Amino acid sequence: MKRLKLYWNLLRKPSVHYSIGFLTLSGFIAGIIFWGGFNTALEVTNTEQFCIGCHEMQSNPYEELKNTVHYTNRSGVRAECSDCHVPHGWTHKVARKMEASKEVWGWVFGSINTPEKFEAKRRELAEREWARLKANDSLECRNCHEFDSMDFTMQDPRAAQAHSTALANSEQTCIDCHKGIAHKLPDMSGVHR
Amino acid sequence: MRLLILLLTSSLALAAFAQSGELSPSAPDGLRKGATLGQDLPAPPIAGDSRDVKREVRNYPEQPPVIPHVIRDYQVDKNFNRCLDCHSRESAVQAGAPMVSVTHFMDRHFQVRAEVTPGRYFCTQCHVPQTDAEPLVESDFKAVDEVIRDSAKGGRE
């Protein structure tokens, strides 16, 4: 208690030994290091390696992703976990990262650590992602798939019809039709597609 | 020690013998053309999906129609049937896809149900997509019209 008081008093007093220039500069440098470190650490949690570091992600969703066109295709463009599940913009990214603390809870208590548990929770997990993508107008899809760059003449007639009407006038967004593009779908009874 | 040397030399000799081709007669020219039984040929290239959507005429009335489009990654399991996303009774018209035929709604007692019955649920058991692959072996299959035409011709003669 006595020591705490000492430190508090030290913090409150103006500096006697160090110049204001030194203090400002060292504060600036420390800021760069901490801010950069924070962002670097945040980026590390965005890598595929980090996501599949836990076996529940490795053996369930990742295995399913591997069969899809978002994982392997003729032009070699790959969407990683974070490309679809974490927004690219900083504010939204940090918000999503805070939400993700729930996933740490799930990991600690093993809420989906067997295929059976994952299957049982599949609908709930899927619904959460559908709701998230619906709410942000399929932001993560649009990071790569731009509406303005779509050539309707190259699409098959049915796709062109849907994209030029419902998508064009913002009645619907990508996730309304394109569910289950990277993972298997849950029991779809009662879901309108 | 002596036994070990004996084993080693005999296995080496055997390996050399197998390599010499005496144990590798040529295979019947069936599906793996040009190779002997012991030889591994490089796998042939995977046949490409045809990208132009074109429905094909059935060769006989009961033939399950072939799938004229790519079905890569289609999920057909207990949870969901991607084919029925377009071909189901409710969606077919809007999707512009042919509806699954009424036989698919019949259970084993020929009672027509509201949904596709489990016995007909797994589409690719009967319906297959087409690729641009050459047939592996020659086939003298004739469509039913050809058979009728030929037999009619034969009758007249």
UniProtKB/TrEMBL annotation, chain B:
Q: Where is this region: Disordered?
A: 22-49
Please report the PTM annotation for this entry: Binds 2 heme C groups per subunit.
For this UniProt entry, which residues form the secretion signal? 1-18
Q: Where does heme c 2 bind?
A: 104, 123, 126-127
* Keyword vocabulary terms for this entry: Electron transport, Heme, Iron, Metal-binding, Periplasm, Signal, Transport
A cellular component term, taken from the record's GO annotations: periplasmic space
What are its GO biological-process terms?
anaerobic respiration
| Compartments (UniProt record) | Periplasm
The answer to whether keyword rRNA-binding applies is: no
GO terms (molecular function) for this protein are: metal ion binding
Summarize where heme c 1 binds, as residue positions: 69, 83, 86-87
Q: Which PANTHER family match?
A: PERIPLASMIC NITRATE REDUCTASE, ELECTRON TRANSFER SUBUNIT (PTHR38604:SF1)
Question: Oligomeric state and partners?
Answer: Component of the periplasmic nitrate reductase NapAB complex composed of NapA and NapB.
So what family is this one in? Belongs to the NapB family.
Purpose: Electron transfer subunit of the periplasmic nitrate reductase complex NapAB. Receives electrons from the membrane-anchored tetraheme c-type NapC protein and transfers these to NapA subunit, thus allowing electron flow between membrane and periplasm. Essential for periplasmic nitrate reduction with nitrate as the terminal electron acceptor.
| Protein name as annotated | Periplasmic nitrate reductase, electron transfer subunit
Q: State the organism of origin.
A: Marinobacter halophilus
Give the organism's phylogenetic lineage: Bacteria, Pseudomonadati, Pseudomonadota, Gammaproteobacteria, Pseudomonadales
